[in-house]
Amino acid sequence: MTVSDTAAPAPGTAEAGQTETVHVALGARAYDIRIGSGVSAELPARLKALSRQTRVAIVSDEAVAAQHLAPLVDALAAAGYEAVPILVPPGETSKRFGTLEDVLDRLLEARVERRDLVVALGGGVVGDLTGFAASILRRGVRFVQVPTTLLAQVDSSVGGKTGINTRHGKNLVGTFHQPSLVLADTDHLATLPDREMRAGYAEVVKYGLIGDAPFFAWLEEKGARVLARETGPLVRAVATSCRAKAATVAADETEQGARALLNLGHTFGHALEAETGYSARLLHGEAVAIGMVLAFDLSADLGLAPRADADRVRAHLKAAGLPVSIADIPGGPLAVERLVHHMQQDKKVVGGTLTLILAHGIGRAFTTQDVETAAIAARLAADGAASA
Ligand SMILES: NC(=O)c1ccc[n+]([C@@H]2O[C@H](COP(=O)([O-])OP(=O)(O)OC[C@H]3O[C@@H](n4cnc5c(N)ncnc54)[C@H](O)[C@@H]3O)[C@@H](O)[C@H]2O)c1
Ligand SMILES: O=C(O)C(=O)C[C@@H](O)[C@H](O)[C@H](O)COP(=O)(O)O
Ligand SMILES: [Zn+2]
Predict the structure, then answer these.
(1) Where, by residue number, does NAD(+) bind (predicted)?
(2) pLDDT of residue 1
(3) Is 9 exposed, middle or buried (0-12, 13-18, 19+ CB in 10 A)?
(4) Is 203 marked active-site?
(5) Within-domain flag for 32
(6) Is 263 among the residues known to form the active site?
(7) In 3-state terms, what secondary structure has residue 58?
(8) What is the mean pLDDT of the chain?
């Protein structure tokens, strides 16, 4: 990664001040993703285009609200809207039944109607929770995503996966419910803690690893500028990620096939999150970074991918400041058996058999059900997990 590179961008790619629009082509459920500096100011006008109602509930978390709620509420008020804020505590533990019930109660208390729109202002936690609440409130109301983390801008605000965690595992209760609009305002990232920025970057790298080797190579060169929040590279990284996700979702909205590739690193990652208690010990994006390295190393173990590609993946994520092995997780070793137990609750399990996303190399991910549990356990142990 070089910070000093000033090469001109390719024609048609984002530079400072530019905004981009990515369309998610889902027929009756199609929507736009607006990306760039200041696009959240478009909210009142865009809401008007979606509904004649003049009341809007905004679900956010307390930390995001402290930084970004007031300007949105003011802009809405100036446009004749009554905004009803509903706040939840920040962090992954808000993705649970108790918080869902609370959000639903408060939406009903505010008499949010079927034709109203609910706005999710926040990271993936707020987006997943709000989207789920919207999908079951009065049997379904529309919602708009205003993602405020890099992770949410490149991934969770797009594609309509909503849900919460349960004591049995990650995202095990939820729905597919597409947003009606996504406004990814890159200015919001100015207040995002660096650790959260790096965690979101893991999901950016994911798109290169799944099917876009040139994008991965571009990130190797320009990733530091993305992480430094330089507008041009940042907008380009968000837009490239959203285009990849939009195309995948448009082709396979409910994950009957190809959408599963977006789960690269997640079967491992979700197990790591569960075993670390969905705590600050390990963020979702960090778990995905470790999971992607595990997936590439396992692919190399099985002779499916060049070891050099696995090494390149690890080197880039490490250079970005992300954890890259189980041994990097603070707070003591995790047990192989516990991790395998969590992996078996994955939603991609068929007839008790795990579906894994592996790769033939960078940009060449594929799904498989042909990996023995012993090979997975051996890889976890080699990565620093404790075996009995
Ligand atoms: N639905 C999907 O397709 C999808 C995709 C990827 C991840 N996810 C889910 O997303 C969640 C992770 O999302 P996340 O990484 O955004 O975490 P998050 O929502 O917990 O946000 C991270 C932290 O940053 C704070 N924050 C958010 N925006 C801020 C800003 N602009 N300035 C200052 N602080 C800010 C939040 O208060 C929080 O403490 C996980 O639950 C994951 O499972 C879902
Ligand atoms: O949108 C998808 O599809 C993804 O898999 C994106 C993932 O980054 C995201 O973390 C998603 O929530 C995981 O989905 P799950 O079905 O494994 O819970
Ligand atoms: Zn993810």
Answers:
(1) 124-128, 148-149, 161, 170
(2) 55
(3) middle
(4) yes
(5) yes
(6) yes
(7) strand
(8) 95
pLDDT in the model for residue 16: 43
Q: Residues 171-229: pLDDT tens digits?
A: 999 999 999 999 999 999 999 999 999 999 999 999 999 999 999 999 999 999 999 99
Residue ranges of the chain with per-residue pLDDT less than 70:
1-17
Ligand 2: does its nearest atom lie under 6 Å from the Cβ of 155?
A: yes
Extract the tokens encoding 13.
């790619």
Do 213 and 347 share a domain, yes or no? Answer: yes
DSSP, residue by residue, 200-229: HHHHHHHHHHHH-HHHHHHHHHHHHHHHTT
Which residue owns the Cα nearest ligand 1 atom 2?
156
Residue 203 in contact with ligand 2 by CB distance below 6 A: yes
pTM, to two decimals: 0.96
CA of 248, closest atom in ligand 2: 3
Are 359 and 215 in a shared domain?
Answer: yes
Question: Which residue's CA is the closest to the ligand 1 atom numbered 41?
Answer: 125
Q: Where are the beta strands (DSSP E) in 26-141?
A: 31-36, 55-61, 82-88, 117-122
From 168, 191, 214, the end of a domain falls on 191
pLDDT on residue 180: 98
Spatial contact of 83 and 48, defined as CB atoms under 8 Å apart: no
Same domain for 131 and 212, yes or no, is no
Question: What CATH number does residue 133 fall under?
Answer: 3.40.50.1970
User: Do 58 and 91 fall into the same domain?
Assistant: yes
Q: Whose CA is nearest to atom 4 of ligand 1?
A: 156
**Nearest CA-CA partner of 357 in 348, 290, 323, 162:** 348
**Annotated catalytic residue: which of 203, 253, 275, 286?**
203
- Cα torsion 50, 51, 54, 55: sign: negative
